[in-house]
Amino acid sequence: MEKTSPISEDELKKLDTLDTNEGATTSSSLNTSSSDESLPSGGAGASEDPSEFSEDDLKKAEEFKTQGNDLFKLGHFEKALDMYSEAIFCRVPKNKKAVYYSNRAFTNIKLENYAIALFDANEAISCDPTFAKAHYRRGSAHLALNQLAEAIKDFKRVCHLEPQNKDAREKYQNTMKEHKEREFAKCIMKDDERIVVKVEDIVVEDSYAGPRLETPEDITPEWVEKLMSFLSSQKVLHRKFAIMVILRCREIFEKDQSLVRIEVPYTEEITVCGDVHGQFYDLLNIFKINGNPAQNNPYLFNGDFIDRGSFSVEVILTLLAWKAALPKHMFMSRGNHESKNLNKLYGFEGEVKKKYDVKLYDLFSELFCYLPIAHCINSQVLVVHGGLFAKDGVKLEDIAKFNRVREPADEGIMCECLWSDPCDQNGRHPSKRGVGVQFGPDVASRFLDENNLKLLVRSHEVKQEGYEYQKGGKVLTVFSAHKVQGRRHGAQDHKL
């Protein structure tokens, strides 16, 4: 696990800015220089006759790019993609196309379309091998896909193109360190490798005025309500008590199978919530509208509690506290963002280290490996974060017995539970994310029939109204974060 200081959010923002300059070789955020004689030939504008390109085409392409940038800043990523595509279609020099492809790659990264982002970054590099930002985009996509060795090559190339860029060099060094540690650990956790913390040795300062715990048994619904009130004033729960909550939940989750069966009386309901993504005040609003978790008001939060939003720590501690207080009436599924590689890319790692320290981040990462990857409600409804599988014949028992206590792999049952998406075309198709699969209504219907189920509920994708049924009506997507990357969405929850 990385022990050095991570790149700050401000530094990431500086690197992850759109290209608004006139050419790829004068990037405003990476300051790419074309004067290095060691750079490869065939870069921006090589073997191109400027007279081949009309001023009208150049002007039109730049207008499309500007519109794309404006839409991007508003969080309208799909529309921004269209504008960058229009710019790419214009007849312009390669150094211009490199910028447009790079911007489209960054937009696809924001949409978690990592496979498409890799394509766009490769096209940008093909247009201009000296364009540092294109290598950075490709490295970011590789990092999100857990392809650390490939990410290292790209970040190293950025450092070669920008020897004075401290941000890029730190990114390269951190990824190198992470890769070495993962190779050593092989991503598999064992009982004797669990993190041990002597909670009794942690001193609570007299000046601390927040909720306190003597024992894990003190985590009651009343205590959690005090915690939510305390966190809502943007105060930080003391490290000792945060650790106590995490350790208590680790004890609970490690007793579960990878698929948890939930029985809800037919006279009652269970509320299923999709991605929250660090939107703490949205979470509070869900509880305000629908009531706090209780014996007669159970909840299932379906992964992606963290990342993107600014209050991921508050969200995860609140959910874990409710789990500790009501273990049989509060359920939590792992999402694709409950993983080290995405936490590094989308902000949770940096947030925890800022509000606490690396030790607490390690505890969170360990805890995520114990989260179940599926829930089955009344033997009729399967709930997973992502979707279905690359092959037919997967049974609920296969999911239940799967060894989930690890970082997600690039394929297999856990990967597909966390990453797959439905589509309206029958059959299976490659995922635009580069991980998991896209599955059609026929695949969903076959899986449900084989397992005597009626409905698949999943999250993982932003929907305009907050929820959406796949064609055929047997797959329901629920997304709860009201505002993600500038876009306002969210059904808040869905009752079953």
Automatic annotation (TrEMBL):
PROSITE patterns: TPR (PS50005)
Chain segments carrying region Disordered: 1-58
Regions of compositional bias (Low complexity) in chain numbering: 25-41
Claim: Repeat is one of the keywords in the record: yes
TPR repeat residue intervals: 132-165
E.C. no: 3.1.3.16
Protein's UniProt keywords contain Metal-binding: yes
Serine/threonine specific protein phosphatases domain location: 237-496
Needed cofactors: Mn(2+)
Example of a GO MF term: metal ion binding
Pfam families noted in UniProt: Metallophos, PPP5, TPR_1
Domain of life: Eukaryota
Active site positions: H337 (proton donor/acceptor)
Enzyme class: hydrolase
Keyword terms, alphabetized: Hydrolase, Manganese, Metal-binding, Repeat, TPR repeat
Similarity comment: family membership: Belongs to the PPP phosphatase family. PP-5 (PP-T) subfamily.
Protein's UniProt name: protein-serine/threonine phosphatase
Species for this entry: Halteria grandinella
